[in-house]
Amino acid sequence: MTALCTSLAVEMQHDFVRAQAQLGEARLQQAEKDTPATRAAVTRWLTLIDAVLDMYLDMRGPGTRRGWS
Quick one: average pLDDT of 13-30? Predict the structure, then answer.
């Protein structure tokens, strides 16, 4: 079970890093041209990052406020 949790945590770290990179790209595109589509892209990536962080905290269980590892 510990290996499964560790594997899931590592996968969520990868998801977070990928989403962060995509958010950066979306923000650059929005800075170049602020349109409803670019604003929506930023919102989508922020929502995904929030969901990944929520899943990570849920997986860690109540009362655990440490870093990723």
Answer: 94
